Fold:
Amino acid sequence: MDMKRLERAFAASGQRHLRLVLSEYTDHNLMPWQAASVRQDPIICEDQRVRTPLPPVAAVIGFIDAINRGDVDRLVALMSPDHRLQVLQEPPVTGREANRNAWNGYVTAFPDYVIYPDHLVDRGYDVLILGSTTGSHLGLPDQEERQLKVIWRATVHDGLLTLWQIIEDTPGQRVLLELTDL
Structure:
């Protein structure tokens, strides 16, 4: 991974500290499977630079990463004070602490929950994600659950999510959200 890609990945992660193994190989041009015999001690880099506020897409990628890691504190750090979680047709969960409690319950009950984003659509303050999940409350085998597509809509202001909405992926919803080309 070149340094520019590394910097973009770090910026998108939303983390405040970077602890990364830069290289386990003496020859940076070798792939891991080509360099098994030339391993050396890893080089650790800590970096505290963070672009603030995060651009909307970067904030959303960080939010998804926090969900996938079950990191509720990081989720809350990426929420606005009036953050709203809207799951399908259920009543919304509003406010950081109410969402902290909801996410703590979900990641405790479903520790293997993972979001797999297939497409991200940047619309300024709104970011739409089309993807699938595994390990959710549906209780399906991973292969089966991965076939069920979901749309997420995030609204981001000043680097914080004001909305995380889960929308059923239907042809009608795709038309309403102008996602028919995906």
